[in-house]
From TrEMBL:
Coiled-coil parts of chain: 330-357
Name of the protein described by the UniProt record: Chromatin structure-remodeling complex protein RSC6
Alphabetic keyword roster: Coiled coil
């Protein structure tokens, strides 16, 4: 995946060669001790290191953005499953009053129902895989006459009852006492596993906020964490657990007090231990409830909302939503990369301008004074230099306006400076130099 398809490529500083006019002054015989050379080479090396870091961070950004996008997609394609837990009481002694019918047994009915908010096309049974109801702290000796034995757990399984469709599950028993129950519901289409706290902490260290995943996700996470934090002893090839508290805790999780802690381990053994210890099935939904026989109904008193995969999303709509979310995220990162690219272009332009000024302005001056200082006869050198500059200026004038001797002779300079010129000419005549 790439975010910078539209970003223009730029020349890195390390790809810009030193101009020959500059290099001949800094590339001396003693180049190893030349500070300019050392600083320039250091600058090139640091930029290469910076490029490596930027590339790695870009890859991490892409990987993390994919996880974030997937999280948003998963959240956007979820609906709310509302679960109601209630019970009704029938023929209880307080309901019959004085006219007690001995042929009618008091009973209660536990009802577990649910629905997808905003969608009546899917039933509660379409969303659940397993339901179990156990009676907490049940004592068989507490049973009264005509009460049902509640020592056996009540279960419903979708595999065994896939033909049965319902929005509510009713469990009816005979009894005149309040009973505490624990209801466990396993939903369909949930992610297969979640990470323990130590793996979650490893994720946070690497800028990843995931609490669940597959076995392959776990392996990738551990390997990347080991490499990025340099946990491998290059001499032995073993992983140094003392450098990372979370990996140390995972490996020594089941260690007895008499055993010596493990401080180094091979990658294969670490992965085997992690797969065994760090992945656990997602816990089912658990509700504690008290069946009340002293009330006619408890409907509406206990309600729970659970996020589930949206069953009303058609595959085409899911694909379109996924594409839209990815496009929005990619556009955001693309704008950031374009801004960085623009800044790099500006810095490179400044660098090129500085090199150009150095080459066109400073180097000629340095060259002139260097040659002047090395001359045995500076006067002769200056005379030649002035003559050379005069020729250059004459060529420039001829290129701009065309050189005409008569026009030069009639220049305003001679009129404006007539007295000074007469004086200079008189001196030349007296000295016989004219």
């Amino acid at each position: 995946m790439s975010f910078n398809n539209n970003v223009k490529s730029t020349d890195a500083l390390s790809n810009i060669n030193i101009l020959p006019s500059i290099s001949k002054f800094i590339l001396t015989d003693d180049s190893e001790n030349n500070k300019l050379i050392q600083n320039y080479n250091m600058l090139v090396e640091k930029e290469l290191e910076l490029d490596t870091v930027i590339n790695k961070k870009t890859i991490d950004l892409v990987n993390n953005s994919v996880d974030i996008i997937n999280e948003k997609i998963a959240e956007a394609t979820k609906s709310t499953l509302r679960i109601f837990v209630s019970n009704t009481a029938e023929n209880q002694p307080w309901q019959q009053g004085e006219n007690i019918d001995i042929n009618v047994k008091p009973s209660w009915k536990l009802r577990i129902e649910g629905k997808i908010l905003g969608n009546d096309d899917f039933l509660f049974s379409d969303m659940i895989k397993h339901i179990s109801i156990s009676f907490v702290d049940f004592d068989p000796s507490s049973l009264k006459v005509d009460e049902d034995d509640l020592s056996t757990e009540i279960t419903w399984n979708h595999i065994d009852n896939h033909t049965v469709k319902f929005n509510g599950l009713d469990i009816k028993r005979f009894g005149i006492q309040n009973r505490k129950v624990r209801i466990s519901i396993e939903l369909k289409n949930v992610k297969p596993s979640e990470f323990i706290s130590h793996i979650v902490e490893l994720n946070k260290k690497n800028g990843i906020f995931k609490t669940y995943g597959t076995t392959q996700d776990l392996i990738n996470l551990i390997v990347e964490h080991i490499l990025s934090h340099d946990l491998i002893d290059h001499a032995t090839g073993m992983i140094n657990l003392e450098k990372d508290a979370n990996l140390y805790a995972i490996v020594n999780k089941n260690l007895s007090t008499d055993d010596k802690p493990i401080t180094e381990i091979s990658l294969q053994e670490l992965l085997q231990t992690s797969i065994k210890e760090c992945i656990q099935p997602l816990k089912p939904l658990v509700f504690d409830y008290e069946i009340r026989v002293d009330k006619e109904s408890t409907f509406g008193e206990n309600c729970y909302d659970v996020k589930v995969q949206n069953p009303m999303e058609q595959p085409q709509l899911q694909q379109q939503k996924l594409a839209d979310l990815k496009k929005a995220e990619h556009s955001q990162y693309l704008l950031q990369l374009e801004a960085l690219d623009k800044e790099i272009n500006e810095l490179n332009a400044k660098n090129t301008k500085i090199l150009s000024e150095l080459n066109t302005r400073l180097i000629p001056k340095y060259n002139f004074y260097h040659e002047l200082s090395s001359q045995k006869n500076p006067v002769e050198f200056l005379s030649q230099y002035i003559e050379q500059q005069a020729k250059i200026n004459k060529e420039i004038i001829s290129q701009d306006n065309g050189y005409m001797e008569d026009l030069v002779r009639r220049s305003d300079y001679y009129v404006d400076n007539e007295d000074q010129l007469k004086e200079q000419i008189s001196l030349l005549l007296q000295n016989r130099e004219l």
